[in-house]
Structure formats: structure tokens, C-alpha cells
Amino acid sequence: MEIWENVFKAAKSAVVSIIDVAPVKATAAGALAFTTGSHGTALAAFVGLILIDLLTKYLSLSAQRLIDSKLPAGLWQCLLGIPDAFNDGYIKSELMKTKFAGKLVLYMVLVAAAVHVDTMTGSEGVFLKASWYYLAATEAISIVENLRDAGVQSLDPLLAFIRTKLGGMK
Predict the structure, then answer these.
(1) What sign does the dihedral 6-12-18-21 (CA atoms) show?
(2) Around 151, how many Cα atoms within 13 Å sit in the side-chain half-sphere?
(3) How far apart are CA 6 and CA 166, in angstroms?
(4) Per-residue CA distances from 41 to 1, 15, 29, 44, 109 (Å)
(5) Hey, what's the torsion of the CAs at 119, 46, 91, 143, to 10 degrees?
(6) Nearest C-alpha neighbor of 79 from the set 70, 68, 91, 96
């Protein structure tokens, strides 16, 4: 009989521990399901693109600081000069945070609208794919422009190519 009491106590303890963290587990499961789905994967890709765009913007602002200070402005110097660009006011973190958050919200709204248009028209993801293509291309242009502004001149042909494919978009 004592063995059954021990089994019951262990089972009760397990149930209590599962219930204690159930909201955390449910949230983690929902987040995992979202991120492994097509929309979550696209959102993660856009977050990655936006972060790369932010880093390259920091590089271009750091390059501007180096040029203004009449210092060498190679890509490596720009990367190492980011903290000094913050200190000298070339990079304002509040502005960058609001741009990042605003861009992410704007992208999510655009994608949600495209999903609804696809649903209303019965098209199978045409508008969603077009919006993803457009957003990815605009981020690519921004990244290439930032790198060009940071002193990487060999990217001009790539920038011209991307703009040509988008119909001369600025």
C-alpha cells in the first residue's frame, strides 16, 4: 500500500508543477508554432533584415562621423567607430528604436492587409507574396544604400540592378 501512496504523491506533485508553469508552456508553444509557420518565418526574416538595415545605418552614420573628423573611414573603422558615433550624437538611439519599431509594425500591418486581400479575392497568396517581395526589396535597397554611404562603393551596380528590377524605385 505504501508504494501506491508514493506513486500518488509523485503524480500529484507532477500535476501541480505542470499547472504552475502552464501559462509559460502555452506561451512558448504558441510562439514556437507561430515562428515555425510561414508567417512567423517571414516575420523572423524581416526582423533579421531590419536589424541588418539598422546595423548598416549605424555604419553609415559612423562613417559620416569619421569623415567629418577627417579620419580614415574604411568599413572596419566604421564598425569600431559606432560607440564614438553614439557618444558624439551622430547616432541617436531613441530615433533608431522608434524607426525600428515603426517599421516592424508597418510591415506587420501591410502583411496582414495582404492576407485579407488574398482571402477576399480567393487568390492563393498572390498579394501576400507580392508584399513580401516588395518589403524584402526595399530593405535590400536600404541595406545597400547604407553600405554605400559607409564607403563600400563596389555596391553601386547591385543597387542599380535592384532598382531596375523594381521599376526604378528610389
Answers:
(1) negative
(2) 18
(3) 69
(4) 53, 34, 15, 5, 16
(5) -110
(6) 91
At residue 114's C-alpha, the angle toward residues 160 and 139, to 5°, is 30
| pLDDT tens figures, 129-150 | 899 888 888 888 999 999 998 8
Report which residue type is found at 68.
D
Question: Which residue reads 539598422 in cell numbers?
Answer: 54
Task: Report how far residue 150's alpha carbon sits from residue 59's, in angstroms, rounded to the nearest whole number.
Answer: 6
- pLDDT of 79 over the 80 cut: yes
CA 48 to chain centre: 4
- Residue 70 region, left (φ>0) first, then alpha (ψ -120 to 50), else beta? left
